[in-house]
Amino acid sequence: MTRAVYWVSPHKEGWAFKREGQDQPLQVFETKQPALDHARQTARNHQPSQVKIQREDGTIEDEWTYGDDPHRRAGRAVLTGLTQRADGIRGGAARRLATDYSPLQLA
Prior knowledge:
The protein is 26% helix and 36% strand. It is of the alpha+beta class.
């Protein structure tokens, strides 16, 4: 099955949510957080999928993968539904991982 890739990127009217390969955004949000929340929920509902956040300079700020991840990075292990990096995680990244990977989502 083909992985759906969703993008959250800056837009002249706020933040755009679009599917990779489409020119027009599916939806535009005034602020980043609602766009990100919508993208992540959409990706969870359409696995396998991925969400990428793009900065204004075009670089990727962050990304989430839902469903099978054929390109798992070295140094990661899935333990009781929470992905943890071997080098440790602090602050917002730990909270983000704790919310993204609950046992119910992995089942």
